[in-house]
User: Which sequence fits this backbone?
């Protein structure tokens, strides 16, 4: 196990999202967001892919985001537990519809603004730095119903207004920002990533990449506003990352692996380097995609790039050009992958690849030469509570210990990593499945897949382990 040290001031912590934790989905003036339309079960996947029957929740369906873990009312208790672990940073998101319930309201919702004021104050009371994502799969439903989500240029201006509102309000409380969570997910889950609902016969790729352009322009406008309003703040982008391995050393497999990686890097290339890369322009030509740009878009992208690269890492991927090999695609992860015979898998079929974490970090730093921030990493697993109320999640500790060791190796490689906020320090609703039994946290929440339970919080074995990791700045793990 690596014993390389972590830099002084390293930001240890954890990460959640508003739509998976807060609940109170219509309280204090909040509007509906797209996740509020995601039920459990098979229909959840249908909606995530843009197959939507209604823009309102349906009778007889269970929507886990509506109450989630009730972080909205219990955040003080939860923040105290994070502080007990010694958190230096806490990554969370602001719900756009809590600030502008419809997304295009003339004035923001003061009660929504005040909630985040109170939450940030609570974090800062314990010297925990808020790391805030502006848009974490959280488009107001009204903007989808009225404008078609991010397919419309209208959302660029509305997002700029939202970004300026929260940057101005919290300029003295938040010094780390990110624009869009896992922006590349737009290509895999278009409704979740951009509020896209397709009609029969539409050119989906054209719509997705036009929506991507709108998000990239909106991101640059948010970066510009952040640099102007909070000069001492840092604002980054965020990628769902994971190195893609070729199944064989055949040149076609190697090139296919590079192509798969570029599918995700495309977004960060623009946000970090400030222009559309040549391979993307060729892809557009080959697929008859024409990006509608307004005058000034290219200059905006070029002049307002991000300060750091945030990324999530859960698993690596494998690809091939052999049709027979491609029949063996693993399930459980939105990124399809050929099964890797050298790796174990989680209960949900996600490959467990700590070395891939180091590879991915090196890959990103080599490519961008900007500080990295690991803002999601963790193991979703079923946790059993003993009769004595104990949760022995040694499997989670083992997963995290190995990944943290590889992160230390990456830092020793020369990779500039400023922090690590593992996913779900407190159990939250699973984004992919809507389940509660797929748990990531150091803190157990008494709630099941049907929404039953007391919501009582309980410390797992990993709680005490992670506390020691933070206390020793990663030395004891």
Assistant:
């Amino acid at each position: 196990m690596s014993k390389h040290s972590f830099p002084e001031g390293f930001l240890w912590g954890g990460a959640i999202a508003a739509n998976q934790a807060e609940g109170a989905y219509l309280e204090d003036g909040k509007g509906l967001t797209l996740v509020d339309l995601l039920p459990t079960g098979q229909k959840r996947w249908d909606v995530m892919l843009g197959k939507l029957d209604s823009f309102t929740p349906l009778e007889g369906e269970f929507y886990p985001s509506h109450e989630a873990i009730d972080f909205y009312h219990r955040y003080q208790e939860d923040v105290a537990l994070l502080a007990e672990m010694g958190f230096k940073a806490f990554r969370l998101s602001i719900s756009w519809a809590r600030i502008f319930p419809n997304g295009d309201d003339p004035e923001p919702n003061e009660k929504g603004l005040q909630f985040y004021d109170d939450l940030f104050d609570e974090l800062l009371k314990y010297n925990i730095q808020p790391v805030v994502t502006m848009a974490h799969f959280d488009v107001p439903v009204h903007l989808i119903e009225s404008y078609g989500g991010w397919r419309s240029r209208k959302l660029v201006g509305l997002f700029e207004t939202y970004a300026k509102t929260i940057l101005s309000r919290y300029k003295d409380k938040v010094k780390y920002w990110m624009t869009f969570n896992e922006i590349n997910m737009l290509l895999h889950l278009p409704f979740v990533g951009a509020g896209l609902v397709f009609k029969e016969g539409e050119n989906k790729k054209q719509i997705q990449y036009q929506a991507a352009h709108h998000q990239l322009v909106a991101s640059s406008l948010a970066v510009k506003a952040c640099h102007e309003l909070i000069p001492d703040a840092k604002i980054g982008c965020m990628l769902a990352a994971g190195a893609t391995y070729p199944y064989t050393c055949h040149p076609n497999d190697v090139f296919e692996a590079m192509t798969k990686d570029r599918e995700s890097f495309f977004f960060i290339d623009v946000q970090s380097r400030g222009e559309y890369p040549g391979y993307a322009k060729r892809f557009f030509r080959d697929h008859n995609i024409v990006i509608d740009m307004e005058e000034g878009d290219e200059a905006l992208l070029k002049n307002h790039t991000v300060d750091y690269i945030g990324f999530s890492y859960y698993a690596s991927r494998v690809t091939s050009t052999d049709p027979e090999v491609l029949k063996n695609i693993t399930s459980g992860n939105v990124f399809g992958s050929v099964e890797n015979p050298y790796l174990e898998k989680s209960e949900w079929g996600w490959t467990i690849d700590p070395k891939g974490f180091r590879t991915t970090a090196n890959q990103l730093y080599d490519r961008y030469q900007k500080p990295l921030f690991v803002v999601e990493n963790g193991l979703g697993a079923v946790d059993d509570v003993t009769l004595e109320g104990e949760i022995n999640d040694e499997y989670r500790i083992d997963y995290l210990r190995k990944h943290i060791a590889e992160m230390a190796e990456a830092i020793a490689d020369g990779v500039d990593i400023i922090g690590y906020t593992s996913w779900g320090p407190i159990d939250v609703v699973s984004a992919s499945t809507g389940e509660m039994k797929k748990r990531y946290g150091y803190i157990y929440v008494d709630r099941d897949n049907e929404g039953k339970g007391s919501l009582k919080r309980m410390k797992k074995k990993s709680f005490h382990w992670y506390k020691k990791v933070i206390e020793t700045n990663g030395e004891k793990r």
